[in-house]
Write a structure and sequence with these properties.
- About 40% of the residues lie in helices and about 15% in strands.
- It has 5 helices and 8 strands; from the N terminus they run ββαβββααββαβα.
Length: about 190
């Protein structure tokens, strides 16, 4: 019998931004925060458990899904205390049978999981496509021992760290090249 995602996690949607108080609006988790968290080396897997219902404040180690990009990440310490809006889903692990990093790898990179997500995606345009929570819960998870999950998850975390260094190097190279070009235009 294939295991479904619902056997391992509970998924809840963030709060509707119209229900957020004005004083909290500056502390919303947004796309920039997600991108930063995605490229950070994830925290250890020792933060499991359930949040209180109705709590939309992020903690380090929370796993979230970006509804628009259909990608998942682990919340970094820099995003602690931000408020999760309805553009994101919180993934609460019910037990220790699914490694957080392995889940991130599956959700973001695994071909079989990508095909499942494509079948479940709904939307009116190619830009706004979401998977309903109930459909997400029905995604099948490959049966892999927890030890193997941890190794795969660790390897994926290391890949993300290398990817971040590579992107930082490209950004630095771009800045230096543009500065040289700028200086070249001033010399004549």
């Amino acid at each position: 019998m294939k295991k479904k995602l619902k056997d391992f996690v509970e998924i809840t949607q963030g709060i509707n931004s119209s229900r957020i108080r004005n004083e909290d609006r500056g502390n919303l988790y947004d796309q920039r925060d997600f991108e930063k968290d995605l490229l950070r080396t994830p925290l250890p897997n020792n933060i499991l458990g359930r949040e209180q219902k109705g709590d939309f404040t992020l903690r380090a180690g929370d796993v979230i899904i970006n509804n628009m990009k259909q990608q998942a990440t682990i919340v970094s310490p820099e995003s602690v205390g931000k408020i999760l809006t309805m553009n994101f889903l919180r993934v609460e692990f019910l037990n220790d049978k699914l490694d957080k990093r392995f889940f991130i790898y599956l959700f973001n990179e695994n071909r079989q999981m990508k095909r499942q997500k494509e079948r479940e995606t709904q939307g009116v345009s190619s830009f706004v496509r979401k998977i309903p929570i109930n459909n997400l819960k029905q995604l099948t998870i490959p049966e892999v021992s927890i030890e193997k999950q941890q190794k795969i998850g660790q390897a994926y975390a290391e890949l993300l760290a290398v990817r971040k260094k590579y992107l930082d190097l490209i950004k630095y190279n771009d800045q230096m090249t543009l500065e040289i070009l700028e200086q070249a235009t001033k010399e004549e």
